[in-house]
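Deliverable D2.4 — example input (structure tokens):
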């Protein structure tokens, strides 16, 4: 019989382990600035990008819980620019997230009263829409924790940005691992666990959703060492998967069949597919918030497909939301930046077109034509 022994927090400290590819994410000056900013803060606001996904909700809720344990004297709020999908509402702490859009009069004073803002899962204030303007106009220290390319210059006093990592939740977990020994050294926090069960759930959810359940951007061995740490905190990864992906309504399945049968347009020579989704179709199928999530991935199951484009009318604004997914080395982020005013990752990116669906389709065709040599490789 194998005898298990308790594992102390220090055993989790992986980033300096030699021979495993671990590199410290924080310099000594970064750690000192973190401690300085957090020690001085009494009203902390944690924010994310509009249309929050699993990584945004996971990183903000995990960070809020972790900070409340280590800085109990601080008032800590999580503010999202817009609503998030229904299939993420089960996540620990999600019920406490404040939504800025349509609640501006209630939420703006909280931002303006804060003495520290932490930006999670985005590197540009414009990705927060109007909430970004409020944050930009409020002169308070900021910390950014992110994994997107090319963060906005001057966005934060402390920038922790690592595009080579799978998700903001992975960045945050490694930051926690690096900070824990400093916080535990001679402090009351030394008696605290590295993570609570709920924090581990949030971090795993963010890592899982931002890698398509570990089907892309997840080949580095250290990702699975981090997952092993989260598993040791009692998470049920299979249940988390079901909570995110096995929550479809009958209308969602009908919508999926309709989109694949009636709306899927395959451009064979370009190894590209495109689907469009209008608000009239949304009403026809009784589509709930988040029901279109994942549809953009389905055409990539077609043999030889390299790029999937999904265009949908926004429910609140006169624009078309653009989602791009690709396989192998096709750079979705470059296409999104050049043609759709957006960005993201190599295999998953997005943006928007302020105009009609016909405008968006026309621009998508131009984008595919421009990138045709790469799509034909």
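Example output (designed residues):
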């Amino acid at each position: 019989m194998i005898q298990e022994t308790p594992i102390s927090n220090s055993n989790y400290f992986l980033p300096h382990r030699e021979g495993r590819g671990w590199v410290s994410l924080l310099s000594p000056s970064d750690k000192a600035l973190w401690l300085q900013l957090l020690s001085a803060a009494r009203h902390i606001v944690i924010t994310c990008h509009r249309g929050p996904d699993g990584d945004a909700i996971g990183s903000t809720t995990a960070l809020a819980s972790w900070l409340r344990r280590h800085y109990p004297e601080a008032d800590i709020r999580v503010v999202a620019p817009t609503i998030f999908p229904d299939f993420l509402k089960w996540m620990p702490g999600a019920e406490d997230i404040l939504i800025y859009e349509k609640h501006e009069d209630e939420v703006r004073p909280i931002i303006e009263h804060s003495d520290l803002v932490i930006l999670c899962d985005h590197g540009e204030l414009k990705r927060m829409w109007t909430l970004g303007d409020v944050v930009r106009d409020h002169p308070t220290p900021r910390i950014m924790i992110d994994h997107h390319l090319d963060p906005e210059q001057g966005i934060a006093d402390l920038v922790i940005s690592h595009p080579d990592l799978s998700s903001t939740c992975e960045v945050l977990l490694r930051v926690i691992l690096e900070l824990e020994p400093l916080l535990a050294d001679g402090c009351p926090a030394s008696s605290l666990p590295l993570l609570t069960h709920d924090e581990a759930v949030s971090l795993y959810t963010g890592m899982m959703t931002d890698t398509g359940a570990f089907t892309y951007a997840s080949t580095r061995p250290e990702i699975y060492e981090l997952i092993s740490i989260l598993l040791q905190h009692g998470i049920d990864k299979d249940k988390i998967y079901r909570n995110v992906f096995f929550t479809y309504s009958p209308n969602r399945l009908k919508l999926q069949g309709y989109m694949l049968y009636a709306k899927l347009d395959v451009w064979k020579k370009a190894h590209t597919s495109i689907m469009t989704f209008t608000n009239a179709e949304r009403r026809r199928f009784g589509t709930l918030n988040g029901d279109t999530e994942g549809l953009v991935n389905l055409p990539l199951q077609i043999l030889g497909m390299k790029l999937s484009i999904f265009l949908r009318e926004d429910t609140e604004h006169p624009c078309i939301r653009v989602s791009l997914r690709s396989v192998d080395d096709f750079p979705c982020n470059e296409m999104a930046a050049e043609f759709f005013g957006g960005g993201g990752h190599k295999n998953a990116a997005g943006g928007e077109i302020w105009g009609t669906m016909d405008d968006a389709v026309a621009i998508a065709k131009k984008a595919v034509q421009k990138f045709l040599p790469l799509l034909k490789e």
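The first strand starts at residue 43 and ends at 47.
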